[in-house]
Amino acid sequence: MLNKSFNRGYLLTVKNKFYRDWIKKFIVDETKGDIGVKGDITSNAVLKDGNVKAVIYSRSEGIVAGIEEVSLLLKEHKIKIKQLEKDWDKIKKGSKLLLLEGNGKNILKLERPILDVLSRMSGIATLTNGLVKKINNRVPIASTRKIEWRYLDKKAVYVGGGLTHRLALWESILIKDNHLDALRKENIKDVIGVALERAWKSRSRGTFVEIETINEKQAIRAAEKFKELKGRSNNIPCFIMLDNMKPKEIRRIIKKLKNKGLFSYVLTEASGGINPGNIGQYAKTGVDVLSLGYLTTVVKSLDIKLRII
Whole-number mean pLDDT of the chain? Predict the structure, then answer.
């Protein structure tokens, strides 16, 4: 159930039309915006037309990500590539990733977007991989919606060994605090129960149903309602997010869910404030998955360069 819901990285490949079209819009169209009407006036002023060769290499060690995406961009601009490393590969300082051959002006106008994509995605993949190893893969870790580059950030987490969580608003139902506050404006007392009852009617439109809870009372109520709803349809993954709770509180809630016979009806996610310093404590709470905004908001990009050869 967890993999069905949160492990969606297999969709993030250029072989998938929706992802390929988005990549073209996000990277290719953005590159066109950078070039503008006048083009790269520096390269146009300094260089003559003609083919050159270049190498993309890393000055950092880590996990490489973004090769598939930049290869698509390069091919769109008629640049020949030879792939020396692939996504998921562990690279060393000095590792050569790609060899390029094509019009020199084309290569240089693409230099910055290529390096930005490779550097950021590889940085996220490396960070994710490091945290997976830090907790000895005790519990899966996932990204959150705190992403700057949408699917690219999600793909990078996936390459690093993490889970994607939901890819976007269209994919799954996730009831947040503002949804519950809006229900309170309707003078509804049992906002947890009503929110889940309403959401359940649209369950087939998404891959899972999840609700964010901020205390033990809300978590127990959500589990009770999920148990009731799953009696009607047992094939929908149901998640309770334990948001911004300390490890001690999460352990207590997990224990109560088990004692009340509710634990087997739900999957639990700890989220909020999880970082390299405390992830070990959260990994021991008994939750099914940890989600970290840290993976994509505190990014140390890998140092990746392009050089004409």
Answer: 93
Beta strand spans in 87-223 (E):
90-91, 96-103, 141-142, 173-175, 209-213
Stretch 261-279: mean pLDDT: 95
Query: Is the per-residue pLDDT at 30 higher than 80?
Result: no
Q: Count the residues in the chain.
A: 309
d(CA 297, CA 242) in angstroms, rounded, equals: 20
- The 10s digit of each residue's pLDDT in 60-114 is 999 999 999 999 989 988 999 999 999 999 999 999 999 999 998 889 888 988 9
Contact indicator for 241, 209 with CB cutoff of 8 Å: no
* Each residue's pLDDT tens digit, 293-302: 999 999 899 9
Select the more confidently predicted residue: 28 or 180. 180
Ordered DSSP codes for 29-71: HHHHHHHTTT--HHHHHHPPS-EEEEEEEESS-EE---HHHHH
Residue written as token pair 């146009």: 44
Tokens of 180: 């519950």
Q: Which CATH number fits domain 136-297: 3.20.20.70, 3.30.360.10, 3.30.470.20, 3.10.450.50?
A: 3.20.20.70
| 36-64 as b/e: b if 16+ CB within 10 A | eeeebeebeeeeeeeebebbbbbebebbb
Task: Give the pLDDT mean for 40-51.
Answer: 81
- Domain 10-131+300-308 has what CATH class? alpha beta
| Domain range annotation of the chain | 10-131+300-308, 136-297
Q: Where are the beta strands (DSSP E) in 111-207?
A: 141-142, 173-175
Q: What is the pLDDT, as a whole number, of residue 232? A: 61
C-alpha distance from residue 37 to each of 40, 106, 228 (Å): 9, 15, 60
